[in-house]
Queue: 2 jobs
Job 1
Amino acid sequence: MNAVALSGAFVGLIYGLVAVCVVVAYRGSRVVSFATAETGMIGAFVFSEIRMVTSASGVVHDRGIWVALPAGIAVAAALGALTERMVVRPLRHAPRIRPMIGTVAVASLFAVFAGRRWGLSPRYAPPLVEGDGVRVAGLRVSPSQLLILGSSIAVLVGLWALYRFTRFGLRLRAAAEDPYGAGLVGVNVNRTSMATWALAGALAGLAAILIAPLANFDVLFMTTLSVRALAAALIGGLTNAGGAFGAGVLIGVAEAVITFKSPVSGVTDVALGAAVVLLMVMKPSRQIRLA
Amino acid sequence: MGKRATRSRGVSRGLAAVVAGALALAASGCGGDDDDGAATEPDTTTAPDVTTEPEATTAPDVTTEPEATTAPDATAEPDGPATTGAPSDGEPAPGVTDAAVTIGVSLPASGPAWEQLRKPYETGFETWAAEVNANGGIHGRQVNLVKIDNLYTTEGGVAACKEARETETFMIITPASGPEEIDCLDEAGIPTYWLAPTTMEPDWTHVVGGSYGPLLAPDIVSFWQSSYLKPGVKKVGIICKCFIPQVEADAHHIAEEAAKAGIEVVIEGWEPNTTSYVAPITRLKDAGVELVTIIDFGESASIIRAAESIGFDPIWTATPLSGTMLDVFAKASGGAFEGMHAMMIKPSSDTPAFAEFVEKVRTHHGDEMAEAADNFDLELYGFITVLGEMLNQAGPDLTRESVLTAMKSLDNFDSGYLVPFTTLGKDVPVGIDSLFPARCCNEDGTWQVLGPAQADFSEE
């Protein structure tokens, strides 16, 4: 049972990390991004294409991560910025539901592009770090999982510092809360918003690259996770990265334990849906401001 | 087989692995019609440029005159009883002329699903058609494959059936359909060759199946007990995508068969939308199973890694219709499949049969497609070679009755590209009841066939 719960916690790290990306985009624009998963997925595939090169003779060479990693993250960041410029910014003054739906369209576009570019078949994603891992409570924790844990902590601390101690963080909060007022006091709202979405995209790319070795690495691998990640972001309140991350971990644990205890398929989804609705009802102040 | 299997949409797990991925893409909001796959516009796809071959001098140029082949003139008077395809009463068979026979290929021919099926269709089916046509056709008739888009939905399937009825389609071959479409085709009297049926109704009279899960259950159980795996095994686990009814039904068919052999089976499934497999794997471990069979759409690598993480090291195997059996998943597993044994319905990619197939692809489609060919492409090629034999055995006087007779009397037909196909003497006309024993992996990460196809592995 301990191993099951612990394994759920590590799966939950994945949900939490993706949820943090949703929170970052939301904090900068008050728009829930449904394109986070697909943005990250494209970053991961760019990473894979640069890292794993097939020669003319059919032999696959691992070129390492040092060029591929920044390239994959940069592409995801660029896609995040592009989403802001093409969809979120033009709809800034529209009811919030519109840019949200716009991100759904972006997600579809990215997924279709990826499906045509890379096909729907899975590919091998070697781990970023090798090793035997460590055994905890009857569970062997792989180096890839430990890397996600470490990266998640680093991301959370980094975001906290960014929001708390930098001028950018201050501008970001101001622009998100009151774009008009922020503009009056000299904040370049457009640039701030785009930077936020680029940051969210970069984090999504990083998350996807870290997750790929643990998942069935195809163009849908992040989409599969996004349901749980969005739930985590909602439970976390959409503006609290730490809360979203924690909620992701909790969902992972709950999913594992429920699946272990319940022989009935689909119980996790029902429980998750009920938890989200219940939370919305009990804490209306945390509801998404859709309009 | 008097018992009706669960009626649900589906294809074999191998086919489903790719189709489901495509449909998931569509379901995620990414659907869209392909530019060349409109359901109402059958597309001539065989299109070998027969004008470049000597035999083509007597054949229609299907490349340049598709209208002539997709819609043969059904009103034309038969020229003679032996060559027009007309039955003895003078009624011409739909889709059959002196020069050509039109075969409908019902499949999701648009949108993301088609993107995934395009390669195996072109590499497998079209290579066969090009090869046959380059060699003068079957009994002198060129073969025209016409895609009919069933959208892989109930409504799409019924529309595809209607299209097949209203156009000059002699018979249907379908790699991905639902039972509603097959029902309709059967009622319409159109001979239908369903490669991976999810059900075979006893009252169907015009349908022949390829690989059918319930009929393969005894093979799977005997394989568990063979020396390839674990003679004397008493407790087996099945882990499956059981939230899909057809998969769950397959698992229970196997469990019922195992019970006859005195083997207890524990069935566990995983949740939708998850990457977490430790919980069901832990239950299997706690149940004390010695061997685990995976019925999946391509999740095997994650499942095996989950088992490793909790120190569970059973004997792993997969069903012949699992996504696991596709080389693309074996290669993507990063070595997780290493040492796994399973059964296959086609030769592996290290065999002379596969090499021959690749050369055929090269001849008709060029180097790029040949280099990309894999065992899924070979599977479809193998299946359609059986269709060729059906047409061949139907004789020059091609009618729906003659091809039905041929379809139901194939006896151990071995094309070399699929396990031998037999429809004689079955309760239901299903072709495959033997399987190749296989092991993963070759150096390139692909599956490896270990011996001849057989239905009973208990002597091994």
Note: Chain B has 14 helices and 13 strands.
Job 2
Amino acid sequence: MDADDELCYWPVAALHRAYQARTLSPLETVRAYLERIERLDRDLRCYITVTADLAIAAARQAEARAARGALLGSLDGVPVGLKDLVDTAGVRTTAHSARHANRIPDTNAAVVEALLGAGAVLLGKQSLHEFAAGGPTRDGVFPAARNPWNVALVPGGSSSGSGAAVAAGLCAAALGTDTGGSVRYPASYCGVVGLKPTRGLVSRRGVIPLAWSLDDVGPITRTVEDAAILLQSIAEADPADDARGRDRCPDVRGRLRAGVRGLRLGAPLREVERAPDLHADTLAAYRDALRVFERLGAQVRSVDLPEARHVDTVARAIIASEALAYHQRDAGERPTLYGRGFYQALLEGTLISGTDYVNALRMRGLIGERMRELMDSVDLLALPTTPHPAWDFAVEARVPGWLRSSFTRLFNLTGQPAISVPGGRSTDGLPIGLQLAGRPFGDDVVLAAAHAYEAATGWSAHRPPLERRPPSTR
Amino acid sequence: MNGDRVPDGLVEDVDEALAAVAHLVARAGLAADARQLGALASLYRRLRPALDALRAGLGPEAEPTSGVAPRWRSGRVDRGGG
């Protein structure tokens, strides 16, 4: 790995320090990323659109600000990517679908305004599962992203390109969206950090929805500190988003080193062990993680999750209904504009009656009430992010969604913050994610715990072996 | 989402599950080929009992809710343990 490649793995915080000290040029950094994308993305397919000219122009502006000692903040000159369902004015936003293959929005999403206002440099728009559901696209207008740890494996989704790009050093950080785990899954499969913030902390305005009542926008980064930097930059009360919270964003950076001593950590071991597709390596990594937290001074206690047997049904009913409500007219009139995987996801919505949907909403309310009671007795919950490490594309296509366990959807139903942080490696050398969830608007506590765990274990420093393999074996 | 509700008793029968999902898909104004309908029927046979269990799990004592996420008590983390 040469110096430019090494630069592409610098954390956001380190880039900022070097820009401030004028020991590193934003323009050189962006050029290094663009060269790496040109070289590696032919195999990895993380990007749908690379905005090279815009990135160079923005980097020049950041360079000028750095020279004047007038950097806008921690993200100034930092190269970022966006899941391609986040609207960007003048840059096509496709949702990885033929339906939007040439769609160019007039306005930026609220989070894009926040990022660009902070000086971030947009490298491009990243691959996803079509409209954020339905699995890797096999028949779409754009290729599916691949896992940089092994290109035969899925990177996880639906923010697949964003997770893979961050892991491969093809952007310093990215924004994804998470409706049932779509930030946390790729983070887990690709060995990076993914945060689903508290619902209402980050505006969804200008983001193409999958399910209005469950969608959240969140950062994918290589370190927990970088996730805190991005969250602090994009969190804002938005009157145009009906899920906005009344609380302001906690000082997630200032409290990052608060540690976990004295915190009560709930471990739902019974639910975890009951998952039929739980991988032995994932369980072992989870148990190891609990021991790490005990060593760090947390009190680990066994808990039961509320209404665990209904969580997947509730999430499935809500997502399928809301997705179909959004797409029903086009899916009926122009079905060929949708890939088979996403169209099948839309068909599921036809099975949910009006009373089924209402009952799912009622059960979500009960789950939330019981979760609130549980969170009175613990400060955090710890679970594996996914039941198993990444599997290959053939298995992904073969195993239907309803036969898969999920440890992530619960927190979309309750709106709690939840993070996936690298938590080990399988016997095959693949990343395993650890998930931590906290109380709503307790994103600072979640990030501080993840940061303490990261510092104690060092899993976030592991990188995919991209440079060590000849192209023929990728 | 669809207004129709197929009786629970049909869920064990594969052919009737297929007929039911074909009806629901058409009613929603969508189209599906045989493979798509087959996959949907398999899901339907599992989903229908799960949805019925969910309804039963609400119980008669369940309070009506708009489905909006519950209100959370404010308050910081108590690091004193206990």
Note: The first helix of chain B runs from residue 14 to 27.
